[in-house]
Model the fold of this input.
Amino acid sequence: MLRVTRLTDYATVVLTVLAARPDVVLSAPELAERAGLEPPTVAKVLKPLAAAGLVSGFRGANGGYRLARPAEAISLIAIVEAMEGPLGMTECSISGGQCGIEHSCGVRANWRRINDVVADALRGISLAQMLAPPHPPVRGQMTAQLAQA
Done:
């Protein structure tokens, strides 16, 4: 099964808390409370998010965190890559030379194509969109999207 890690999921939750109040600086304990997460978990996800330039940290008595740029300008691919590194459905989707059968593999090009579709889907969804209530899927929409891939 393909899925993002739990920390990536939590990072998205923390970022949506910040996105809901973009002009407010929230401390890690405040973020933990609002996100329903444990403070050590929030501290753990804030480090790579700050390193990737998705959040800005402020020190001092009124210190804390806020988004480094508008929620509309933060894509899900940026969050995933901040937490997990480059998106790769398979090892060879990222770079060559990692597989012993690469020279005779007939599926590498298709895995790269699938990797590109997933990356484009994540790139096409912003953090701001994650705040909005989900729209019910149109019947057959997912089947049509997969057929186009």
